[in-house]
């Protein structure tokens, strides 16, 4: 019985020893990652760096789809900065095929990780709500009944500490999500674990990617940078009414952004509690225009009252690049479209908005895959706040002004290192 072996150099003059094996592996990864056949375009194979440009900066070329070798380049879009995966491919081009194939797998996992976050954010709650309702009319009705009984008995758990699982917060999937953009956490000052903190994070963006990766997972090293601090990110209370989705959110340490929930966290005997609040909320997402830095903060003072009631230090946090991962259609504040968005928010608690990324298989099409733009979350210096069980309006206004000044200074100090032009400044609304 004859075994299939690659032709030797003697059989094919001039052929390299493992050419057949390499060809089969390349075809496999193309089919697995993209579902397409054939060779990459001659314009994209082994393209040199742009003359006079930085190493690894590849001139844009016309293409309708991406090969496995250029998959992450397509996800980043034309003209995007050179990423870690691209540098890894260039560095390993002259070495063995092992590192090269590993980098292709890494790129694919990063794209899948980023895409699953979007799908989960948008559809996991509605999907399980409809599924529980649908099962009531099937032979599996008992599954829905059992879960609804559990939901009734467990209704107040999100407001009373919830259920967080560290192994879920440290899943390898989130390292791939971190590396896709990439997401980075910058520490500017110590947060001593002998007190509590209220971290106000800006901007909200479309999906709070930077805040989630940095504070709801530990893939950016928050626990090492700030030892002894336990973070509790907060979200809309209505999200914790959605079946199954509420379990998903609680497993990452999320809590409802309600007074009862926040008071419970900051009243724990163990110090070092840090609540993460997206103060701008859903309304700030209506200003998530790439390159713009508009914050809904001027009249948002509830987080300051919370800090005063518990004597928790205020910490300004800014995520540079959060608004750049999607393109966004903004409407004028005097338009009927904007009025509809605000009315919907008052009723439902969140604002519908029009945004788009790029296609999963092509940078030339639109879709839900975020653009791979760096997100750098900078944690500022804590502002000490005294405890006042019944703070006055003058005290609230004073510390609110101190916070706005600290946030603005944090932005000015780090904007240029994060790719923001020196002429750009924060706008408070």
From TrEMBL:
GO terms for molecular function: 2-acylglycerol O-acyltransferase activity; diacylglycerol O-acyltransferase activity. The keyword Protease does not apply. It is found in: Endoplasmic reticulum membrane. One of its GO terms (cellular component) is perinuclear endoplasmic reticulum membrane. Its EC number is 2.3.1.-. It comes from the Eukaryota. The keyword Lipid biosynthesis applies. One of its GO terms (biological process) is monoacylglycerol biosynthetic process. InterPro entries: DAGAT. It is a multi-pass membrane protein. Residues 39-59, 77-96 are annotated as: Disordered. The chain crosses the membrane at residues 130-153. Keywords: Acyltransferase, Endoplasmic reticulum, Lipid biosynthesis, Lipid metabolism, Membrane, Transferase, Transmembrane, Transmembrane helix. Belongs to the diacylglycerol acyltransferase family. This is Acyltransferase. It comes from Mustela putorius furo (European domestic ferret). The lineage of its organism: Eukaryota, Metazoa, Chordata, Craniata, Vertebrata.
